[in-house]
Structures are given as C-alpha cells and as structure tokens.
C-alpha cells in the first residue's frame, strides 16, 4: 500500500509509487467560447485575460481564426494553503477561452465566414455570449445602434438555424437506418422532438429530457445544447451596477434559465497590466469583489456542474477540477490513472477545518480527518490525501 499526497504527482517530474513517472490523469478541460456580434468588446476582454494578442480592430471580421488562451481560475484558498505548507508552487484550476470571430445575421448560411465560426463553437464546453451594454459613438455598432435584445436574438437565431441544418441532415440518415436498427428509431424520435422546438426558436438546451434521451444527446453535435452565460459588457462608469441595457440582458438570461454576469472589458484590460497586489487594491477602489474572468469562470463552473478539490504539500498546492457527484476514486483518477485503479481510501478534511486547525496534523488530532472509501461523494473544497495500491 502506498500513501500519496496528490500534490506530489507532477507532470513529467516526480516519480510516483508503482514505478510510474509521468502524469497520466483524466484532465478535465473547461473551454469557453467567447461569442458576440462584432465590436461588442469580446476581443478586448479576451486580450485582457489571456494576453494572446487577438485582434481588436474597430471593424467586423477582424478576428477570423479562433484565438485560444488558457488562464488560471484564481482561488484565494490556494494562497492560504501554500502559506501554511510553505509550498514551492501554486497550481490553479484552469479555463480555456476561445475567442470566436464576430457573428452577423446570415452566419449560418455563410455570411461573414459564419460557417467557419460556428464550427468552432461545437468544440467548447460552454458559451460566454458578450453583449454590448454601453453607448460609444467612436465604436461602430454592426447594426447601427445598441440594442441588446436584438443583438442576442441575431446570434441565437444563427445558432438555431445552424442546428436545424445539422439535424436535417442527421434525420435524413437516421430515417434510412431506423428501418433496420431500433437504436436509430429512438434517436430519430429525439431528433424530431428537438427539430420541432428549434423551428419555434426554442434552443435544444431548454427542453426536458428523460434519462434515455440524455444518453442519446451525447451523439448530437448541436450548438444550442451548449450552456450559456450572457455577459453584459458595460463602460467603466457602470461597472458593478445595472443600467437599462443590462436589465434587458438579465431578463433574457433568467427567462431562458441561463447565467448572467456584468463585466467591463475596458477595466479588464487595465487590470491585466497590474500586479496581484495592485489588482486587489484596484478592485477595492472599484467596489467589486472579483475580476470579470473570475465571474465568468465561476458562472461556467456552476453551469457545467463542476467543482474543485484541493491538495497541499511542500512541493505544491493545487486545485483539481471534477464534476459534482464524482466519487473519491474518480477524483483520484483526475490526478493519475493508477490512483483510481488501485484506490484504497482517501483521507479527507474540509478546507475550513484544515485552516482552523493549522493543517492535517491538527485536524487529525481533533478527529476532523475522515477516512473515506470508494462510495464517498466528493465535496467542494475537500483537501485530500489518496492511498492506493498498484
């Protein structure tokens, strides 16, 4: 039996018990496609959080190919744990942003190279739909005026039209195969159900599905199945508060069962130039608790049913991303496949108990360190030590 602090399992470096030397976990990639009409501020926001240099010129279609950037999801708990353990490194959970070029009316039919842009959306886990909620005569609006409701409707309609086109082709194929394959009969019923909804401008994600339908949904590459965060982009004078534009976006999000957030791309650009200490002070001055990146990341975690567990040690303190409801062996497998295969048990302590009792030793002395088995459902913020045998 080997006792392993998960934080010691580092990619391509430290040796692991059992003779394995390479990190081989089930890394959970969280990718968010940043979409919106041209000149709504999405590329400015993307530049600020990733420093990837995506074009932000003041004209449509300046961003033709998707720009990708992986950024850390800031978690203050890691700083606390690292200080307690004198950790050499801090590794945050990450989120990949994909900046997808501005969509316009007719994108689903190829306007503005729309088909290419729409195909990139299929690859992401969720969508951050940036909506312009500010007036600025110096920044041209693609439709001549700022109208959040109309802007949202344009992009949503293009996604719906693209899905109708996708389904039409799939239904044609499934109809032929359903004559000899019962599985295709079930799939055909589901696709027609979604098709009818789309024709009424209802996104696929807004329908109710039973368990068997949920399984079949995995085979459908539909854009409107993606979870959405509507992000109202305001000017620096309206950060942290609503205006008439943001109220419209919030209402649309609530009615659709989607998430809503307010950010200022301009302020995000300023924050990106600051040190950690300066950023904290600037956020205090603005009266907002976190950056736009943090807001969107947390919203996406909620939408996708994700959570984090933590590991802490001298070499590193780290956050790991798992799904809500994952069992302890599954969480161990995110770190390394051997941890899941040979899982014996997990020593678990909650973050508050760990901090209040000065670490693992203190928590154990107070009886707050729990020994959990294969059926343990992981909780947000669990600090874990896995024991396994290979």
Automatic annotation (TrEMBL):
Cofactors needed by this protein, per the record, are:
Mg(2+)
Q: Name one GO cellular component term.
A: cytoplasm
GO MF terms listed in the record are:
ATP binding; ATP hydrolysis activity; GTP binding; metal ion binding; ribosomal large subunit binding
What sequence ranges are listed for the domain OBG-type G?
30-283
**Which SUPFAM superfamilies does the record cross-reference, listed alphabetically?**
P-loop containing nucleoside triphosphate hydrolases, TGS-like
Q: Which UniProt keywords apply?
A: ATP-binding, Magnesium, Metal-binding, Nucleotide-binding
Amino-acid positions noted as binding ATP in the UniProt annotation, renumbered to this chain? 39-44
Checking InterPro entries in the record gives: ATPase_YchF/OLA1, Beta-grasp_dom_sf, G_OBG, GTP-bd, P-loop_NTPase, TGS, TGS-like, TGS-like_dom_sf
What superkingdom heads the lineage? Answer: Bacteria
Q: Which Pfam families match?
A: MMR_HSR1, YchF-GTPase_C
Q: Which part of the chain is the TGS domain?
A: 305-388
Per the record, the similarity remark reads: Belongs to the TRAFAC class OBG-HflX-like GTPase superfamily. OBG GTPase family. YchF/OLA1 subfamily.
Instruction: Tell me the function of this protein.
Output: ATPase that binds to both the 70S ribosome and the 50S ribosomal subunit in a nucleotide-independent manner.
List the NCBIfam families hit by this protein, alphabetically.
redox-regulated ATPase YchF (TIGR00092)
Alphabetized HAMAP family for the sequence: YchF_OLA1_ATPase
Task: Please give the name of this protein.
Answer: Ribosome-binding ATPase YchF
Organism equals Candidatus Omnitrophus magneticus
């Amino acid at each position: 039996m080997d006792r392993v602090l998960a934080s010691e399992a580092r990619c391509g470096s430290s040796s692991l018990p059992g003779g394995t030397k390479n990190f081989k976990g089930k890394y959970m990639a969280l990718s968010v496609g940043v979409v919106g009409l041209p000149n709504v501020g999405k590329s400015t926001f993307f530049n600020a959080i990733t420093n990837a240099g995506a074009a932000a010129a003041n004209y449509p279609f300046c961003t033709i190919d998707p720009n990708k950037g992986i950024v850390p999801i800031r978690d203050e708990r890691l700083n606390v744990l690292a200080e307690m353990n004198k950790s050499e490194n801090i590794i945050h959970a990450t989120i990949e942003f994909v900046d997808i070029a501005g969509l316009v009316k007719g994108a689903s039919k190829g306007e503005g190279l729309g088909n290419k842009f729409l195909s990139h959306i299929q690859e992401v886990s969720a969508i951050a739909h940036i909506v312009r909620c500010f007036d600025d005569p110096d920044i041209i609006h693609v439709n001549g005026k700022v109208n959040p409701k109309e802007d949202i409707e344009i992009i949503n309609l293009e996604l719906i039209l693209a899905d109708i086109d996708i389904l039409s082709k799939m239904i044609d194929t499934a109809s032929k195969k359903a004559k000899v394959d019962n599985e295709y009969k079930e799939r055909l019923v589901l696709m027609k159900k979604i098709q009818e909804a789309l024709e009424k401008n209802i996104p696929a994600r807004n329908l109710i599905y039973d368990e068997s339908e949920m399984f079949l949904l995995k085979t459908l590459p539909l854009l409107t199945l993606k979870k959405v965060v509507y992000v109202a982009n305001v000017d620096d004078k309206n950060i942290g508060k609503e205006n008439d534009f943001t109220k419209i976006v919030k209402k649309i999000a609530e009615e659709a069962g989607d998430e809503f957030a307010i950010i200022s791309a301009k302020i995000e650009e300023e924050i990106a130039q600051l040190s950690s200490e300066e950023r904290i002070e600037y956020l205090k001055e603005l009266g907002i608790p976190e950056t736009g990146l943090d807001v969107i990341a947390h919203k996406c975690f909620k939408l996708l049913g994700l959570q984090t567990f933590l590991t802490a040690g001298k070499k590193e303190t780290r956050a790991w991303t798992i799904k809500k409801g994952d069992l302890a062996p599954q969480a161990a497998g995110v770190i390394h496949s051997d941890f899941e295969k040979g899982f014996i048990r997990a020593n678990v302590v909650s973050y508050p108990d760990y901090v209040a009792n000065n670490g693992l030793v203190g928590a154990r002395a107070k009886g707050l360190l729990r020994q959990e088995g294969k059926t343990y459902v992981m909780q947000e913020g669990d600090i874990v030590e896995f024991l396994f045998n290979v």
